[in-house]
């Protein structure tokens, strides 16, 4: 099944647009590191891309399992005890730091389980 991205137009005032442009230009010119962003207070948490992509891959597999079983988001919400918006956030990637409990409850609701794998990474 092919997913379709939905774009919602965000209405911003000219002042808000100017501020966003200023911030974007500043970050593009300085290219701050992850540590600098966290220290500045501009960012409160940071999810490394590899971890995010791993989570997205897991959620894609769980969503495909849900669809193969003919379950709706409402079905999964009822089975897992989570609300529909939480299920939608997990599936869409909006929730970038879900709890282990939420992932396991979702998996159980679609008749799956999550297994963990530990891999060594090279020191930088």
Describe the structure.
The protein has 124 residues and is an all-alpha fold. The chain folds into two domains: 11-46, no CATH class; 49-109, lambda repressor-like DNA-binding domains (434 Repressor (Amino-terminal Domain)), CATH 1.10.260. It has helices spanning 14-30, 34-40, 49-68, 73-80, 84-92, 100-109. Helix 4 crosses helix 5 (84-92) and helix 4 crosses helix 6 (100-109). The N and C termini lie far apart (39 Å). 9% of the residues are buried. The model has no long low-confidence stretch (mean pLDDT 88).
Task: List the keywords.
124 residues, 6 helices, 2 domains, 434 Repressor (Amino-terminal Domain), 0% strand, single chain, mainly alpha
Strand content: under 5%
Query: What's the average pLDDT?
Result: 88
Second rung of CATH, namely the architecture of the largest domain: Orthogonal Bundle
End-to-end distance: 39 Å
> What structural class do helix, strand and pairing data support?
mainly alpha
Any idea what the shape is? extended
CATH superfamily of the largest domain: lambda repressor-like DNA-binding domains
Q: How many domains make up the 3D coordinates?
A: 2
Helix coverage percent of residues?
55-70%
